[in-house]
Design brief:
Length: 750
């Protein structure tokens, strides 16, 4: 066979060999996060190898041709020459294709990386997640990207009932829908962004969405999905089944229970809708009044006569002659009792919500985002849905307009029924209150919203419609313990002073002139080591003015502290630039020291009691460490606590007198009871140092009237040295106000 034929065989064989190698590497890069540079290097080797082997074959072929020249004539065909040229071009294109495939990923990475870094430094975690996810979808992999991805995400599991639903994620702040496919349920060990987002569950013709976040998923939520349904998406919002808790203050003593999927109306029931019930003989038909008849068998004979408007016709209390006021057809129906609300729900083959359904749909924790546009403290009702006051679930007037009856009783007296959300003539804080009225009450302001329970293998717990009572403590009238007893309580946090056995190192973080040290010291219990971090400005003249910090409860459900260090530098920057050093111990049960404690809420268990004692000892031990550093002025030590850190301060500030002043961000006292020896109530009055409290008026964790104000009044601090600022917000305070007041307070009392 002549050279041309061998050349053709060689090229085809080499292409096949190279294709197998390169496609295999592409698969590994795309699916197992191999470095894409491997493809570049392999491609270079194959190109050099091609020409090397080709040259070798040419030399061999010429040698053989000269040897055979005198004995045999070469049979050379012209078409084969053209074929060889074509094949040569083909292999050139082959190599160019794989070169572009590898370099395109590198170019995409190089273009996007500066944008990703900039977004991260500006706390735009949604953008970081989105950009890196898009790169991953394009099979771009790089250790730097992986590092940033881990910083803005948390590893979770996503489960559904039933299984095998496709799960997608979409960021809330996206201007357009950009659903990122996560896998089929159960989706295990998937990383989700540390922000709020939407989840979509899809199977055949069924498709459901739910707002969620990493916090919820990190607690192992199981989503209950309904059977195939057809409903009016303009009128109803679907809420998926899940284990739901009661976020009303005073109801925290109830455990989470399983609530199946349901529909809830986006709008309150209007006058014109209720008119259909009246004109259809709703007040005369006993089939709709089952609840009333069960309560009183003579109800249809006697009690229903009370349900009339002006001039004696059946209907709401503010109607005349069986008709709503002129021009108010789209006002919410009002002036109705609980029994009328139940009857109307039966008429529509729907139900009143139970407390779990209402609270879940209302999104109490986000109230400050829609409270401003709600018509509290006004002179009249408004058309339903006429103001842009929808909540995260798209429900209008969930706050204000009319109060909404629920099915649950509020006490042993079954006649007291829940009515939630507040009305136009109520104060705004009513929205976060679990409020009740007599079931026969027909006040102006009483209305309703409806739900429909959906078929699902994920069933609602039978206790959902039970009595749920408020457990609120009257702190200002509770009896405190004697000083002698308190000293016994305080002694629980004592320990034998021992060597710290310090390990310290400065971490490699570059953010302005700020620096961070990591330390490990011996804890005061169980031969454990207490880690922590010190944030400071290395260009500031020493000694630093130290601030010991206690975080919010999110730290209990967060795996890694180090992933958020750069963000914390920015969070504390206003303090560091003024010469303060912030010391952040990693308290037991938080971050890398997470254990069986999953909540900061007090309870009656020994487990919670022991946890509080460990937190107190960690706090005092961290102060020991601060005192051991020559670059810290222990005499100007202050305390800074956020949320949980503000609440636990009721104990911490009473057990160690080395702290000179404190700033408490959205703090209060919880209503839940616990072992007396770790109950915050008994400690608060023993606090004597200056205290600044910053709170939101609509805070659903620490209500103003029953939690914030009692705590402030109970503080043993002299009146001139304590201050309470309240803002028109929820569980947060405007950052500019925090910065201004925090620095002023420190300057005043350092």
């Amino acid at each position: 066979m002549n050279f041309s034929n061998k050349y053709l065989q060689f090229v085809i064989g080499y292409i096949a060999f190279s294709f197998s190698i390169l496609e295999g590497l592409s698969f590994l890069i795309d699916n197992y996060q191999f470095n894409s540079k491997i493809l570049d290097y392999t491609l270079l080797v194959l190109v050099i190898g091609f020409f090397g082997i080709l040259a070798y074959q040419f030399v061999i072929s010429i040698t053989k041709t000269n040897t055979q020249k005198n004995t045999k004539k070469i049979n050379y065909k012209g078409y084969l020459s053209y074929l060889n040229i074509g094949v040569t071009i083909l292999i050139g294109g082959f190599f160019v294709y794989y070169y572009n495939k590898s370099t395109s990923k590198d170019e995409l990475f190089e273009i996007k990386l500066p944008e990703i870094i900039d977004a991260f430094e500006n706390n735009q975690y949604s953008k970081v997640y989105n950009e890196i996810s898009l790169l991953k979808n394009n099979k771009v992999s790089n250790p730097i990207l992986d590092n940033y991805f881990e910083k803005v995400t948390t590893e979770v599991n996503i489960n559904t009932s039933p299984l095998n639903y496709e799960v997608y994620l979409d960021l809330l702040n996206d201007s357009i829908e950009n659903w990122i496919y996560l896998g089929k349920s159960p989706v295990l060990k998937v990383r989700v962004p540390n922000v709020r987002f939407n989840l979509k569950f899809k199977s055949n013709d069924n498709e459901f969405t739910e707002r969620s976040n990493y916090w919820i998923l990190n607690r192992g939520r199981l989503y209950g999905l309904p059977s195939s349904i057809d409903y009016n998406k303009d009128k109803f919002k679907i809420i998926l089944g899940a284990k739901r808790s009661l976020s009303f203050p005073g109801l925290d003593h109830y455990s989470s229970i399983q609530i199946g999927p349901y529909l809830i109306s986006k709008l309150e029931v209007t006058n014109i809708e209720f008119l259909e019930f009246v004109q259809d003989g709703g007040y005369e038909n006993p089939i709709y009044w089952e609840a009333a008849i069960n309560d009183n068998p003579k109800f249809m004979e006697n009690e229903i006569k009370k349900f009339v408007g002006k001039f004696g016709k059946p209907g709401p209390s503010n109607w005349s002659y069986g008709m709503y006021p002129d021009g108010q057809e789209n006002f919410p129906v009002t002036g109705i009792s609980w029994f009328e609300a139940m009857a109307y729900a039966n008429y529509r083959n729907l139900s009143l919500p139970n407390v779990y359904q209402w609270a879940t749909a209302a999104t109490l924790s986000s109230s400050s985002s829609f409270m401003y546009n709600s018509n509290f403290s006004q002179n009249q009702l408004i058309n339903v849905g006429s103001q842009d006051n929808s909540n995260f679930n798209g429900l209008y007037d969930i706050a204000g307009n009319v109060r909404e009856w629920i099915v649950n009783s509020l006490s042993d007296d079954s006649s007291i029924k829940g009515i939630l959300g507040g009305s136009f003539n109520d104060e705004p804080y009513y929205f976060n209150d679990y409020f009740g009225q007599n079931s026969m009450d027909r006040s102006l302001g009483n209305g309703l919203r409806l739900v429909k329970n959906l078929e699902s293998e994920f069933k609602t717990d039978i206790t959902a419609n039970d009595q749920y009572y408020v457990k609120v403590r009257d702190f200002l009238n509770e009896k405190n313990v004697s000083d002698d007893v308190f000293e016994i309580f305080k002694s629980q946090y004592d320990y034998d002073i021992s060597e710290l056995n310090k390990e310290e190192k400065t971490l490699d973080y570059s953010f302005s002139s700020f620096a961070v040290d990591q330390f490990y010291i011996d804890a005061a219990y169980n031969n454990e080591r207490l880690p922590g971090y010190v944030f400071y400005d290395k260009n500031i003249k020493k000694p630093y003015k130290p601030i010991i910090f206690f975080p919010g409860s999110g730290s209990i459900n967060t795996d890694s502290f180090e992933n958020g260090i750069e963000n914390r530098m920015k969070q504390f920057s206003y303090l560091l630039s003024e010469g303060y050093a912030l010391i952040h111990p990693i308290y037991k049960s938080t971050f890398e020291r997470r254990d069986n404690i999953k909540s900061d809420y007090p309870d009656e268990t020994d487990e919670y009691k022991n946890a509080v004692i460990r937190w107190g000892k960690d706090y005092k031990r961290a102060i020991d460490y601060i005192q051991s550093r020559d670059d810290m002025d222990i005499n100007s030590l202050s305390y800074y606590g956020i949320s949980w850190g503000g609440s636990i301060a009721n104990i911490l500030l009473a057990i160690d007198d080395r702290v000179k002043n404190s700033v408490l961000y959205v703090a209060g006292i919880e209503f839940q009871t616990c072992k007396k020896e770790v109950d915050k109530f008994y400690y608060t009055s023993r606090i004597k140092i200056p205290v600044l409290m910053l709170n939101g008026k609509f805070d659903h964790f620490f209500p103003l009237e029953t939690s914030q104000i009692p705590m402030f009044k109970l503080l043993g601090t002299p009146e001139k040295d304590k201050k309470h600022y309240v803002y028109e917000t929820g569980h947060y305070v405007p950052r500019d106000e925090l910065i201004k007041l925090h620095l002023e307070w420190l300057a005043k009392y350092e």
